[in-house]
Amino acid sequence: MRTRMLALVLAFSTITIAQNREMKREKLSSEEKVAKQLEKMTSDLSLTNEQQEKLKPILEAQMKNREKKMEEVKEARAKEEKKSKEERAKRREEMKANQDSFKEDMSKILTPEQFENWEKIQESRKEKAKEHLKEKRARH
């Protein structure tokens, strides 16, 4: 009896936690995402108003590109299309080129100290993403 009760409590708490995570995730527009990203970068890197104005169009372009690619991925998943190794390699190369271009733009806008801090933040985010992916794969 205790085992069943414990199992029920555990099941309900798991469901509740999952629902709370879904509720917390906000649906932001592209403009809101860019504004939030710019605000975070401003606080993390102490950006000047001039740097913010230079960075905003770059972030907007990056967001549009990211959303376009995400839409392509969603459409491919809906059609249950599998990409060939060549297509996946091409996609990775495109992503790398976009990252390199963004990094170059950042190096032109930020001071050397800010750029160094930005790179550290990016590396930290990359490590967290890797850990999250490992956890996600372990669960499935």
TrEMBL record:
Stretches for region Disordered? 66-140
Basic and acidic residues: compositionally biased ranges: 66-107, 117-134
Spell out the protein name for this chain.
Answer: LTXXQ motif family protein
The organism's taxonomic lineage, starting at the top: Bacteria, Pseudomonadati, Bacteroidota, Flavobacteriia, Flavobacteriales
